[in-house]
Structure formats: C-alpha cells, structure tokens
Amino acid sequence: MRERQQLPVLGQPPPERADAARNRQKIVDCAARMIAERGAEQLSLDEVAREACVGVGTVYRRFGDRAGLIYALIDERERHFQAAFLSGPSPLGPGGTPGERISAFLRALVDHFFGQEELFLLLEKSSPKARFAGPYHVYHAHLTALLAQLRPGADQRFLADVLLAPVNVGLLNFQRTERGFTVEQIKDGLDALVREIAR
C-alpha cells in the first residue's frame, strides 16, 4: 500500500514484514538526509534508491512516485497533528465551541504547513492532485462536522472547502514572500473569515 493511502486515517501504519519495515525506514531516512543536505527540489527516487543501497524497483513499489515518498516524510508530523485536533486539548481538540475549534484548527494548519513548507511545496509540484488527496479528506471531514454544529442549515461540505481554500502551502508561501504578510496576519485573516461564516 502506498504511503499516500495510509496517511488520511489517523492511527498506526499497517503491519509489514521486518525486512520491508527496515527498507522503508532506510529509504525515508536517506531521503530526509538528502533533503537536509541538498534541498527538497532535487529529490529523485532513482538517486534515493542508489543512496539507500536498495533497488529502484523497491522504492517505486513502496512509494509509487515522488509524491508518495514525500507523504512518507511528512507522515509522523501529520499523525501528531491529526491527534491534536481530534483528541487533544481544547480549543484545538474537543471542548471548545465550534467557532473556537474551527479557528484553532485553521491557525494550527497554517503552522503545520509552514513547519514543513519545502516538503509541502514539493508535494504540490510533484502531483497536481496532491493538494486534494491524503490528509485533505480528514481536514474536510473535521471541518464539516464542526460546521454542522455552527451552521446547521448551510451546505457544510461547501463551506469546509471554502475554509480550506486559503490554507494551502502555495498561497501561504506567496502571501508571506510576495505580499509581505506575517504568519500572524494570515491567521488573523482566517479568524475574520470564520467570524463571517459564523454570522
């Protein structure tokens, strides 16, 4: 199973043979080291296979393509992030009002993307559909559930897409580098959007 198929659901990775687990970890560690040394833009599955001393076929079977390998690199942080908004302390986790939780979630998502900005940017470039695959489904379901409490009569699925639209790494990067917005200004703008939807 490719990593991008594992990521959307919070929990433990599926069981695997010990040798497969070792190879997977070796490949992921090698890719992380290469990115730290050379940057994410130069990441190539063929070169990762050479550096990790495994067959190219092993890398492609395990991860499918470069996007699959990037998902594996962000997987651990993604699982921690999902745990925080699904079962962590309030207001990000359960306990706050729907509006508070939505704002806390969007603010945390901004931090999550900026924390691994280079990888998320590479993911979007590697696969045009990557932005709407994997974790997007979890984020969307979470917001839809909160919006059902906040705006019972509205089309919550549409509003969840509206809230997620400005929180993509390409736009966030543009806002910070080209528009000169600070991270706090971006978060404040999202808070204002949530308030408008809540009215």
From TrEMBL:
Coiled coil: none annotated. Keywords: DNA-binding. InterPro entries: Homeodomain-like_sf (IPR009057), HTH-type_TetR-like_transc_reg (IPR050109), HTH_TetR (IPR001647), Tet_transcr_reg_TetR-rel_C_sf (IPR036271). One of its GO terms (molecular function) is DNA-binding transcription factor activity. Pfam families: TetR_N. It comes from the Bacteria. The keyword Oxidoreductase does not apply. Residues 21-81 form the HTH tetR-type domain. Residues 44-63 bind DNA. This is AcrR family transcriptional regulator. It comes from Nonomuraea endophytica.
